[in-house]
Write a structure and sequence with these properties.
Mean pLDDT of chain B: 90
Number of helices of chain A: 20
Oligomer: heterodimer
Strand order of the largest sheet of chain A: 1-2
Order of helices and strands of chain A: HHHEEHHHHHHHHHHHHHHHHH
Radius of gyration of chain B: 29 Å
Low-confidence stretches of chain A: none
Strand content of chain B: under 5%
Structural class of chain A: mainly alpha
Order of helices and strands of chain B: HHEEHHHHHHHHHHHHHHHHHHHHHHH
Chain lengths: ~475, ~650
């Protein structure tokens, strides 16, 4: 296999992240843990990678012998992952410090997890997707169990690992079956072979297993069972990262495989995606109604949001893909911001996470409460916030693709979701502060990160075309 | 040059509003607030005069300018059914005339308000609202399309609402403001629907395009009839005509300068202006013109009869306004468009004068408004008395004051025009007698005879200069304002002719009466007015007890008139109460609380019991999670392979 200099240049974001990860790794292992230096180095490297990614949003080019597909599509996701990781680190610094567990190793793992996500989004080969997923997942397993002296964190890590390994088995088996029926793992080649194998038993079974594997990563019903336990037990900023970055990565793989291979034609795979979407929207929102722990509530909400995004994929059309990619970006902002606030207010031993702990927040922390309200209204899909247009685009795509029933379920489900999102706002704004609540000091870096997210949620809602135009450019 | 001037002319009152609205509360000094508020309108007036002079100097063909500010909104432009609305002003003979009236009379009333509102805690708010009113009213008259006109139309409605309820801590003021707003909404629906129909018929809402299209449609076209009737419904709301006049008498709860500016001189004439502006549309639907004429004449006499027996000085003037507006619609309805606008102008002068005069009286009497408790005020308020008397003579139609010329022209056109009839003329003449009678009843009871209040306790004093000077200027205008419309030397009609010529052409209007007949009718109407004045003076000066005796003699008639034909009660019983009870019993208790709330709450409790059930599935056992996973895979494979 020949490696060209252009391959290296086109994949600059990867190389920057790899280099940063290696530098931090060497720093940490040679001179003891220095979390401040490590975190700022990571932020610098990731920001640089994000800029590098954003400077190249052109057409996709095959690199490294057709294993990777560099260009706009990969870099859109790459930038999304890097920015998510930067925000996660900004939230983590303060969080780990207050939990008395500030170690540089978290940042190494975050960097490698980000790299795995970037590989997934850039893959042009099922094997590369698998590699990326494993790189990401293994780092996340460890990150989930970062508080190794805490039972909940251990439980989260172990459950995630066991079920993740289980899912990986099916994923790999699916890849093997597809290879068996088409004789290739290259996605472009599979696409060429698709008309001949579309009714092949091996190929369909393989696709089904692949779908199950991806559905596990995005936490869609019925492969979602791990998510609430893991999100609740993991360190809060890491939960935010898992629910946005990892989900977006798996969606990139879903789009790469299912939208590219199966195309817009109506077929059984799209039907099954529609059913999973409906089940996720209903189950996620219904169970979220009964939650009082905010991390758990957001875990179920993230299951429901996976459902909304799957609606765009079920449509199978270009509109649907645009909707999903827009949704992923704004969902990342809203959810990271929400988890960031929750993490900033959390006290030791998983305290201050109940809904009634947020009573009267608007008086104690008016800025954070206002930002939280923006995120929650956005998640509920109120116009003119960005979350509204995310839902609008995917539901519109579904209606155009004659999936009216799915759009109706989606609208009803998001109606339901308004109840639990608004309940938090009611607590923040209309309830009196509890007498025993402890005052918390939130550092400026966290405040500004949260405000930045909230402003973006507003701006992307007012000017959705900024993202949509970018997505249009990178998709076609 | 003209475009810059006209933009400045419109924007100045807006700037005044913004400045006073934002910083007025901090400006403690009434003088500065009053000066800024008045100056914004005064400079506008000077600019309007300048534009007018330029137009007068130009030839009749060059007297129309369109000033395009920006494209307000557009949709599907370039394709059929496309819509593009500009924020654009049209300055022509009609709109500049209205602009002069609005800014000129408005300026005088602003000056007057400095004295009248002195000491009011909401002084800055008052001037801010008044400036906003001038701005929206200028948008209404200068708009070059229906949408911008509607914006102004709604804007003046809003200002009217804000100013009627200016003393919002008093319940009657708040109620009156709401009533005005709601009644106007009914008219606005008519205006809106009319606009929709216009767009459907002509594919545009721009005046020039629509009117050009209308000049070529066939007469007696049913779409045109509906457009005109719907627009007229809008006009009856804004201009207080039957059936939507009920809000105007209540609107007197606002400060008196507001009554003078908004509810007499300018805003209430917006309906007249709108129909005059759309004269070509009405020319295409002569049946609608007849409706306008009949409603106008009916309102004129209906409101005048109510005015006969009222005792509140402002209520009498309010009914008089409704009645005079009826005359204007009568003029429009008989296709005497320039006569209608002429009466609009003279009425603005003398009715503003009368309202401001009544304000001076109320001021002097310490907020007393009942004329039965006044009398003999002429020795205390000499300036107010003289100017008020001039206003009363002018409105009664005695030559050579302003009201005579405009009213006489209306009556003459009603009698002899193609669209007119002798019956309508007779109704108008009857109205003229009644007008003269109730106005001199008002003058006599207020200013003459013996005082009916305690002169030792109450010492009425003449108003300050800021109030009397506007009175004197308006009195001068009420005398001389009619001279631009002297029959056979009618400068105003000549000036407005280019605006109304297309409509007249379409109606094939011709004058049938002779000069001899014109002089005879003039003598008839002047003697009618004189008879009304004489009767009122004789009755109230020489036999002060007669009114009560007459009331005893015809108790039913008197009660009906003094209770305003029970119109408010009828509306309440026929419209308000049924709607309220349907809303409460069916819509609220039945549908909202019963059906909607019931199903929502039911669905909510169903879903939360589902949630309790489903969360049990999440039992925390990893093996079970794996089982679910396998179940999911089995389902997917079954669907994919065996579907």
């Amino acid at each position: 296999m020949d490696v060209y200099i252009s391959d290296i240049l086109l994949n600059a974001p990867f190389e920057i992240v790899v280099l940063t990860a290696l530098i931090v790794l060497v720093l940490e292992s040679t001179r003891g843990t220095r979390p401040n230096i490590s975190s700022w180095t990571s932020i610098g490297g990731l920001s640089l990678a994000a800029v590098a990614a954003l400077t190249n949003l052109g057409a996709s080019v095959e690199t490294f012998g057709g294993m990777l597909q560099s260009g706009g599509f990969a870099n859109y996701y790459g930038a999304l992952f890097c920015i998510s990781a930067v925000m996660t680190i900004l939230f983590s610094r303060n969080y780990f410090e207050r939990q008395n567990y500030h170690r540089g190793e978290a940042y190494i793992l975050l960097l490698f997890a980000t790299l795995g996500m970037m590989v997934i989004a850039a893959s042009n080969d099922l094997i590369m997707i698998f590699l990326g997923i494993e790189l990401m997942s293994i780092c996340l397993y460890v990150l989930a169990g970062l508080f190794r002296h805490r039972d909940r964190s251990n439980e989260a890590s172990l459950k995630y690992f066991l079920l993740g390994a289980f899912a990986t088995g099916f994923l790999l088996y699916g890849i093997a079956l597809i290879y068996g029926s088409t004789g290739t793992t290259n996605i472009a080649s599979i696409r060429t072979a698709f008309p001949h194998v579309s009714h092949d038993l091996l190929f369909l079974t393989g696709s089904g297993l692949l779908l199950a594997g991806f559905a596990f990563k995005i936490a869609a019903v019925p492969f979602h069972m791990w998510a609430p336990d893991v999100y609740e037990g993991s360190p809060t900023p890491i939960s935010g990262f898992m629910s946005t970055g990892a989900k977006a990565a798996a969606f990139a793989a879903l789009i790469a495989v299912f939208s590219r291979v199966f195309g817009p034609s109506e077929n059984a795979v799209h039907q099954i995606i529609a059913l999973i979407a409906a089940a996720s929207m209903i189950a996620g929102n219904v169970v979220a109604l009964a939650q009082s722990n905010l991390k758990r509530l957001l875990a179920y909400s993230s299951i429901a949001h996976a459902g909304y995004m799957l609606v765009g994929l079920a449509a199978g059309t270009a509109d649907g893909q645009i909707g999903v990619m827009y949704y992923l970006a704004v969902y990342a902002l809203m959810n990271l911001g929400a988890f960031g606030i929750i993490g900033a207010l959390e006290t030791e031993n998983d305290q201050n996470l109940q809904m009634d702990d947020y009573a009267g927040l608007s008086e104690r922390e008016p800025v954070l409460a206002a930002c939280m309200a923006v995120f929650l209204f956005g998640l509920a899909g109120f116009p003119p916030l960005a979350g509204f247009f995310g839902k609008y685009y995917v539901f519109l795509a579904a209606v155009k693709a004659r999936l009216l029933w799915l759009a109706v379920i989606g609208v009803l489900a998001s109606l339901m979701s308004a109840y639990y999102y608004l309940r938090i706002i009611v607590f923040m704004y209309f309830e009196k502060t509890k007498a025993e609540s402890v005052p918390i000091s939130v550092p400026m870096s966290v405040r500004w990160t949260v405000i930045f997210c909230a402003v973006l949620v507003l701006l992307f809602g007012l000017f959705p075309s900024v993202i949509v135009q970018t997505v249009l450019r990178v998709l076609f | 040059m003209i475009s810059e001037l006209s933009i400045a002319l419109v924007l100045l009152p807006l700037l005044g509003f913004l400045f006073l609205g934002l910083f007025g509360a901090r400006l403690k000094n009434e003088k500065i607030i009053g000066f800024l508020g008045s100056a914004a309108v005064g400079i506008s007036f000077i600019l309007a005069l300048f534009i007018f002079a330029q137009m007068a100097a130009a030839g009749p063909e060059q007297r129309k300018y369109t000033v395009n500010l920006f494209t307000w909104f557009s949709a599907f432009t370039g394709s059929p059914g496309g819509l593009s609305i500009s924020a654009a002003y049209q300055i022509d003979q009609l709109s500049i005339l209205l602009t002069l009236i609005v800014t000129g009379v408005g300026f005088l009333i602003h000056i007057y308000s400095i004295g009248y509102m002195h000491g009011d805690p909401g002084f800055w708010r008052f001037f801010a609202y008044m400036n906003l009113f001038i701005f929206t009213m200028l948008n209404l008259v200068l708009a070059d399309n229906f949408v911008l006109m509607f914006l102004g139309w709604e804007g003046v409605g809003l200002c009217s609402y804000l100013l009627i309820g200016f003393w919002y801590e008093k319940k009657p003021a708040g109620d009156a403001a709401k009533k005005a707003f709601i009644v106007n909404r009914i008219g606005d629906i008519g205006f809106l629907l009319g606009m929709f129909l216009i767009f459907a018929a002509f594919g545009s809402l721009n005046f020039d395009t629509v009117f050009a299209g209308a000049s070529s449609v066939s007469r007696n076209n049913s779409t045109m009839l509906w457009i005109c009737l719907l627009l007229f419904l809008g006009a009856t709301g804004k201009s207080a005509q039957i059936p939507l006049f009920v809000w105007l008498p209540d609107a007197m709860a606002g400060p008196t300068p507001v009554s003078a500016l908004i509810h007499a001189a300018t805003m209430v004439t917006a309906g007249v202006y709108m129909i005059a502006r759309c004269s070509i549309l009405y020319a295409a639907a002569p049946a609608a013109l007849t409706v306008v004429a009949v409603v106008g004449a009916a309102t004129a006499i209906f409101a005048a009869t109510i005015g006969l027996v009222q005792n509140d000085i402002k209520k009498i003037l309010a009914y008089s306004t409704i009645s005079q507006l009826g005359y204007m619609f009568l003029a429009l309805g008989v296709a005497a468009f320039s006569a209608g606008i002429f009466h609009l102008m003279t009425h603005a002068f003398f009715k503003a004068l009368l309202f401001l005069g009544s304000g001076a009286v109320i001021h002097a009497m310490h907020e007393e408004q009942d004329i039965q408790k006044m009398g003999g005020l002429k020795k205390y308020l000499p300036v107010t008395y003289r100017t008020f008397l001039i206003g009363a003579i002018a409105i009664s139609g005695i030559p050579p004051l302003a009201g005579f010329f405009s009213k006489d022209e209306i009556l003459w056109k009603t009698a002899t025009g193609d669209q007119g009839s002798w019956l309508l003329w007779f109704v108008g003449l009857l109205g003229a007698i009644l007008t003269a009678f109730y106005m001199f009843r008002l003058v006599t009871l207020t200013f003459e005879g013996e005082p009916r209040f305690d002169e030792h306790r109450l010492h009425p004093h003449e108003a300050p200069k800021t109030m009397t000077v506007p009175l004197i200027i308006l009195a001068g205008l009420s005398i001389a304002g009619g001279w631009i419309g002297i029959p056979h030397a009618n400068a105003l009609e000549h000036w407005l002719d280019p605006v109304f010529a297309p409509a007249q052409m379409k109606l094939l209007a011709s004058e049938s009466g002779s000069t001899g007949l014109e002089i005879i009718l003039m003598i008839v109407s002047v003697s009618a007015a004189a008879a009304g004045i004489y009767a009122a003076r004789r009755l109230y000066l020489q036999y002060p007890g007669k009114e009560r005796a007459a009331a005893k003699r015809f108790p039913v008639l008197y009660r009906i008139l003094s209770q305003k034909y029970y119109i408010d009660e009828i509306y309440d019983a026929v419209v308000v109460k049924p709607i309220a009870s349907i809303s409460e019993k069916i819509l609220w208790k039945g549908i909202d609380k019963g059906a909607i709330d019931g199903s929502v709450n039911g669905a909510a409790s169903f879903i939360s019991s589902c949630a309790q059930l489903l969360r049990k599935v999440q039992n925390g056992v990893a093996q079970f999670y794996a089982v679910m996973f396998v179940g999911g895979i089995l389902f997917i494979l079954t669907w994919l392979l065996f579907r």
